[in-house]
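[Meeting: bench + compute handoff]

Bench side (C.D.) handed over the final construct sequence. Compute side (W.E.) agreed to return the predicted structure before the next meeting so the bench team could plan truncations. Sequence as handed over:
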Amino acid sequence: MGKKLGLDLGTNSIGWTIRNTSLDDNQFEKYGVITFKKGVGEGKSGEFSLAAERTKNRSVRRLYQARKYRLWETLKVLIDNDYCPLSIKDLDMWRKYDNDKGLFRKYPIHATSFEQWIRLDFYNQNIPFYTSPYQLRKELIENEIDITDKINRYKIGRALYHIAQRRGFKSSRKTGDKENTSVYKGSKESGAKGVNDIIELIEKYKTLGAAQAYIESKGLRVRNQYTLRKYYQEEVNIILEKQGISTKSEFYKSIIKAIFYQRPLRSQKGLIGKCTLEPNKSRCPISHPYFEEFRAWCFLNNIQFKNTEKDNWTKLPLTLKENIYNEIFFRKKKDYFAFKEIKEYLEKNNFKWILNFKDKTNVSGCPVSARLKGILGNDWVNYEKTTNEIRTTRNGKGTIKNHKITYKIEDIWHILFSFEDEECIADFAKTKLELEDDKINYFLITWKQLPDGYAMLSLNAIKKIIPFLRKGHIYTEAVLLANMPSVFGKNIWEKKEAHLTNYISTLIDRNRNEKNLLNIVNELISKWYSNGFNNGYRDSSYILDKRDDQLIKTLIIDTYGNKTWEEKTNEEKEDIHNQVKCLYQYFFQDTFEWIRINDDKYYVIKTARGTFYKNLGNGYYKIPHLLNFIKEHLKEEFNLKDKELDKLYHPSQIEYYPKSKPDEKGKILLRSPKTGSFKNPMAMRTLYELRKLINYLISSDEIDEETEIVVELARELNDNNKRWAIEAYQRRKEEENKEYAIAITELLNDPEVFGIIKADPNNTDDIDKFRLWQEQITYKKKFKKEPSVNKVDKEGKEIENNDRSLLP
């Protein structure tokens, strides 16, 4: 016997023990406990995510950084156009640094003219010419000044710099009309003016700066305002237009970009999981029309019906599925609907069937497709819009081609999915698609209500699967058939599609039947081991008897179910029984040739129904994998190569950890436990610590590939809310136990109470006294909690709480 490694995994500790079963005395060679910090932090308010805390602090730093970059760029534009009395050299001292030369950023406090400019002292009198920049901004929208005068140019530059310092709130997400409610609304107690209050003043005084100047004149705190960026943009346009600065000038373009440029959000494409069928491709967004159709057909192909309870389940006709898809799944308002609507539709068309789904089952609709259909028309799938814009492309050979830009349905969806600015979406709908006003508004609604999330499959895989779903195949069959055209070639597939499809369906049924048979046989083998034959010895001359025959029949019925088994013909029953009996009989024999599959050895058993593989050691049969089963038969039937067959998909294919490779010393160490489908921080911390421990034990030759590993861990990993609930429950029970202890102590000291009695079960008096003692404890507890409530006896009379004699 070899070594055994026992592991006890916790959220902040790992206990481990190495047991050598070949030793006679102390079999525990080494043991220990590793402690580490949990994957979450703990504060006064409870647990919090360390990653979220880092993200919050990083966001604050980047906001400060973006503000500095914006101010520096604004000053550079103002300096270049002589709107600020600061030199580029002084600005570079503030915005640039060189650690190697010992040069650090320095605010230009030595630039006297700049300091005076900041303080609104344009005439060098050490007295601000305006009480605040808001008064300056108000004057610039009311009076036109001579911009050839340097002082006046400095005034305009100072107003623009003040706007750059606080340019208002603009959501970087699809909030749309809700942007006004995304910022503070203000309160009467603090005197703060929120967006809703500012809007009225802006309409009255034309710009935000003038409105804030009015608020300041009333003695209120102007900085305690929460404003939107669009009002600042409107004010800049009004100021420059009033002072005769053209919107087509380079200064206008540069200053607008410097003040209002917003760095786009960092792309999150790297966080998107990979497709389970095509690991090199990212998953498809759930808002894509192709995914909505894929999801709908997967559900429709699973609907079955029967006329009476005794009938067998039957799939819906394909034409009926198409009608349901076109008339029910395209809904604009709700993403989900109840299955009851499909049932009512069938009854309306005189199909009164028993269906295999409950009425309350939620069914996902196609909301994005429905909205695109309402905007682009009934033939929205084939929609194309050719514009007058010319795009130049160059191929690898250097050939240049000019063609007009054409927008198809996937291009339009991609714009809805990727654009973050409402104005850009509206401009695209108006100028590129040339939609009418009502459809432009509907286009914006579609953009705002685009659902978030990603599917498990890539868009490329979905496009291959959908054609087979449309033909009525269930998901399993459609996935297996998805890459068949590329395996056989398009020409052969188009000619023999019907034959090959039926052949694949037959293989799927055969594989399902073989799995049922082998599961029954393996269950028989397991029962044989459980009856005491656990030393591995099997008598090759053993012949199955009647008891084995009865056990085989019982397990077959349990596997198939009584109803399904009764529906089979006598010939089918006999055939299944004989196959199971034959394979179970082969379990006791070992005269077969064997082969190696991966790291295991198997006997090869060939029968009239196929080839089976029995493990050389324990005798269990290898369950045939569906994809491998199909590959083997396609290879024999059509002489296909392994390289072509590897293109096939498997419906249950999931993410798995990459296979470890030997290092320089030939030792196989565990790789990173990181995976895209599992991100619990507490569990990941434990897995990383476990990897370090296992790799250390492997490197120090404490364990090897023959070591048996036994892991003990909790059934589930509770989240923060559940852990809090458990702690609160334990605290509540602790308080209840204290109350019980106090009540029992008081009863023991009470002379009217009999005390704790060890009742004799054969003595009726003892049992009665014990029950009376329990009733007194219960009354004592109620009496303590409800001292002010009077009791009522059987006749309906009130009883005082302190009168115990009248209580039962």
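W.E. noted at the follow-up: DSSP finds 28 helices and 20 strands in the chain. C.D. will use this when planning the next construct.
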